[in-house]
Amino acid sequence: MNQTLRQFSIVSIVTIITFLLIFIFFPQFALIMLSLFELISILLSMYIVFRRKDVTSVKVAWVLTLYFVPVVGLFVYLFFGRSNLKSNVIQKREQDRMVRYVQSLNTKMLEPLSSLEEKNERLSKKAVVGGNQFEVLTDGEETFSAIFAALNEAKDHIHLFYFIIKEDELADKLRKILIAKASEGVKVRFGVDGLGSVKLSDAYLDSLKAAQVEVEIFNPIQSLYHIARANWRNHRKVIVIDGTLGFVGGLNIGNEYLGITPKFSHWRDTHLQITGPLVTQLQESFLYDWLYMKNSAGSANEFMVESYFPTIEVGSDEGQVIYGGPYDQERVVRDVLFNLIDSAKEKISIASPYFVPDDELLALLRRAARNGIKVEIIIPGKGDRKLSYYGNDFYLEELISAGIQVYKYDDTAFLHCKVMIIDEQVATIGSTNFDIRSFDINHEVSAILYTGQAIQKLAADFKKDRTNARQITALELAQRSPWKKIKGKICGLFAPLL
């Protein structure tokens, strides 16, 4: 995968040099080319406005990009902004066969359901499942200790998919465990996103393959033609072990998620360990992606056996696993989260590293606050990506003017958890950020917790995070320098593209 990145870098550099030489030695031809690019950009802008189904803020960002930087903007759009990713006929057929099989299993249904549970079941087509045990893992050390211990105990299979695996000491430890388990006869399936893990070396992947680990890449970027896939990222982080134990949440694989990085004093993140029948739905989300990556007729057959979907009850916690992405007709993850927000009676607590809401989410939160519901949001005090970080500021005035309490986390650390708690009675945790990319472009997964001590643990962690944050006031916003205000507005306009 590193080779692909190098090839793309070389092609990009050669292209830039070629254009510079044309502009220097053939200025008249360059002027004609520039006029042509501007005409194409105008026509493309009209197409985006009238034909594409993106949310308004995404359309505005693309149009501004095409108008203000027509040459660069045009190439960026051709590479990253084309129509939604879709499964082909074979992929979709195998995915549907697997989903129908899972739905046919005798998973114990809960009765009676609350109004919220019933709505979310109808909306997502995923049952609320009881008999589970949820455990909140509050930071990297706790998360990876639990994951590595569980991997070492695997007996039948390990299914693992991550958006980012950074090739460092933590990733090497993971690799050695997976190779060891494969040598014991455990079936290991390993998947990563083609962009998020583009720097993962061929040597790393080849060592897994040599140990009989099945390796698949989600939308690999193998050429300039394939780079059009880069915008449609699979942001999920999922591990399923023996069909009975699963992990989902915000942490990728890399030393920085342990806080071992010079950029931040601490990395604040949250993961969830699930034991029990709900792992069936997490398994389904993994296999949905796996069958897409395999892209071969009959690939679902080996998974349509009950050994991959045991339903052993271990506790009393109730929940759902919701997953979705741009290949789906509906935005299921977003809509379920909106149902949760709309159900709030007293309090909505959100922690998100990238808070770039679409118009509907912004209106929903403002309405809740104006109705007297306490809405509190924690965002990073220091960002890992400047555009997204300053893009958060674009929405602060609208949030605070409605009575929403916004906090910025410790400005020496980074807050990366993706958590929402409603009335301290329902919670969600997963890979989903509260931004347009997660809602409309990425493939995401989130667990919805309806009962259990894990909800109180998330609420307690949120309160602790709030004590390590400072509240942003309307006066502070008014006193910002003109440059900071302009920077926030500009970044807010383009943040939906990232």
Topology diagram in text:
Layout: H1 2-25, H2 27-50, H3 56-68, H4 70-80, H5 89-104, H6 115-124, E1 129-137, H7 140-152, E2 157-162, H8 169-183, E3 187-193, H9 202-210, E4 214-218, E5 238-241, E6 245-249, E7 267-268, E8 271-275, H10 279-294, E9 317-324, H11 332-342, E10 347-351, H12 359-370, E11 374-379, H13 386-393, H14 396-401, E12 405-409, E13 414-415, E14 419-422, E15 426-430, H15 436-441, E16 444-449, H16 453-467, E17 469-471, H17 474-478, H18 482-494
Parallel strand pairs: 2-3, 3-4, 7-13, 10-11, 11-12
Antiparallel strand pairs: 1-8, 1-9, 2-5, 5-6, 6-8, 9-16, 10-14, 12-17, 14-15, 15-16
Helix pairs in contact: 1-2, 2-3, 2-4, 3-4, 5-10, 6-11, 13-18
Membrane topology: Multi-pass membrane protein
EC number: 2.7.8.-
Domain PLD phosphodiesterase: 230-257, 411-438
Keywords for this entry:
498 residues, 15-stranded mixed β-sheet, two-stranded parallel ribbon, 3 domains, single chain, alpha/beta, 18 helices, Endonuclease, Chain A
Number of domains: 3
Number of strands: 17
Summed up, the helix count is 18
> Hey, roughly how much beta strand do the residues contain?
15-25%
Question: What's the N-to-C terminus distance?
Answer: 22 Å
Second CATH tier, the architecture of the largest domain: 2-Layer Sandwich
